[in-house]
């Protein structure tokens, strides 16, 4: 039942991307099963996939005989079961700061600008809507980073916060958010662009990327 | 610097409520500082409060010399620093199921039906909008509970998942969601209604509840 991990993923899904980064950083080998969430394809709604993920979302991760959903929960599981390359600092207060950044992105930004919500908001209001929530959240993240950042979000080691931040910066660019307002975020994004674990996880390097 | 913990809370905020339940369960004493997020009051936007919480939200928790924000991050911190009364099971797979339910509510439901998003959606569409996302999320939670629930969400011990579920059920009732569709959720809600830690944390028992 164990075997190689399987990640159900969509190339452009920022939640899938978070997990891809963490899997790469922790050197866990996995196969990707692409699930197209594109309007019209909607593979996440198939009977078969709903049995895997009742939220009808990517990612899902089959690992150690478990099927796991929800990126933050998946990353906590990987951290607990594969602690050798840690993505949380040891200090309790610093761990809380990592998780705050993850939570701001996972609850305060991404849910409000993901594809299924944008479909509901309607085409003409999508860009303004997405920009509003990304700006709100990034202002808070930038404020936290002003006291916590070193080379990366929290000090000088890559953490779960970086796994969440980089995909969200990509989304911010898609919605033409003015990133010059967020110098700490931009600095970390630039620094991680060429990190192998991040580069291999990015949308353009995925098997289901259409221009690959 | 340490002293008694201070919880910045709003009586009807489900995110504040999650933390109140966990603090009560873990028998951590705290004082409440009410922050009114009601439209027109908007105390969360004050310069003073923004220094505490750059997301301009409740809850925030001052504890152990730290100021913590984001309910899920706060609960993980309490679990790590106060493990004596645990709110996560010991098994890794079961912990992941707890966190999945927390994440579905924290990312898939609550952000889409909280006050600041409803203000943005506009009065005439609020109820339909909120019902849509609560039903989507509760269908997934109900599916998970069908395999994990005992007396409570995960087995027979109260966990973080219950701290997240009960306030969300209250919100579902406010938006007139048909809870008969979710028998496992209803059963757990009924069972926890009279649990002292939950009862003392509920909106009606808060110092800033207007009808108190």
Automatic annotation (TrEMBL), chains A, B:
<protein>
    <submittedName>
        <fullName>Glutathione S-transferase</fullName>
    </submittedName>
</protein>
<keyword id="KW-0585">Phenylalanine catabolism</keyword>
<dbReference type="InterPro" id="IPR004046">
    <property type="entry name" value="GST_C"/>
</dbReference>
<dbReference type="InterPro" id="IPR036249">
    <property type="entry name" value="Thioredoxin-like_sf"/>
</dbReference>
<dbReference type="GO" id="GO:0004364">
    <property type="term" value="F:glutathione transferase activity"/>
</dbReference>
<keyword id="KW-0963">Cytoplasm</keyword>
<dbReference type="InterPro" id="IPR036282">
    <property type="entry name" value="Glutathione-S-Trfase_C_sf"/>
</dbReference>
<dbReference type="GO" id="GO:0016034">
    <property type="term" value="F:maleylacetoacetate isomerase activity"/>
</dbReference>
<dbReference type="InterPro" id="IPR034330">
    <property type="entry name" value="GST_Zeta_C"/>
</dbReference>
<comment type="similarity">
    <text>Belongs to the GST superfamily. Zeta family.</text>
</comment>
<dbReference type="GO" id="GO:0006749">
    <property type="term" value="P:glutathione metabolic process"/>
</dbReference>
<feature type="domain" description="GST C-terminal">
    <location>
        <begin position="91"/>
        <end position="211"/>
    </location>
</feature>
<dbReference type="GO" id="GO:0006572">
    <property type="term" value="P:L-tyrosine catabolic process"/>
</dbReference>
<dbReference type="InterPro" id="IPR034333">
    <property type="entry name" value="GST_Zeta_N"/>
</dbReference>
<keyword id="KW-0413">Isomerase</keyword>
<keyword id="KW-0828">Tyrosine catabolism</keyword>
<dbReference type="Pfam" id="PF14497">
    <property type="entry name" value="GST_C_3"/>
</dbReference>
<dbReference type="InterPro" id="IPR010987">
    <property type="entry name" value="Glutathione-S-Trfase_C-like"/>
</dbReference>
<feature type="domain" description="GST N-terminal">
    <location>
        <begin position="3"/>
        <end position="86"/>
    </location>
</feature>
<dbReference type="GO" id="GO:0006559">
    <property type="term" value="P:L-phenylalanine catabolic process"/>
</dbReference>
<dbReference type="GO" id="GO:0005739">
    <property type="term" value="C:mitochondrion"/>
</dbReference>
<dbReference type="InterPro" id="IPR005955">
    <property type="entry name" value="GST_Zeta"/>
</dbReference>
<dbReference type="Pfam" id="PF13417">
    <property type="entry name" value="GST_N_3"/>
</dbReference>
<dbReference type="InterPro" id="IPR004045">
    <property type="entry name" value="Glutathione_S-Trfase_N"/>
</dbReference>
<keyword id="KW-0808">Transferase</keyword>
<dbReference type="InterPro" id="IPR040079">
    <property type="entry name" value="Glutathione_S-Trfase"/>
</dbReference>
<comment type="pathway">
    <text>Amino-acid degradation; L-phenylalanine degradation; acetoacetate and fumarate from L-phenylalanine: step 5/6.</text>
</comment>
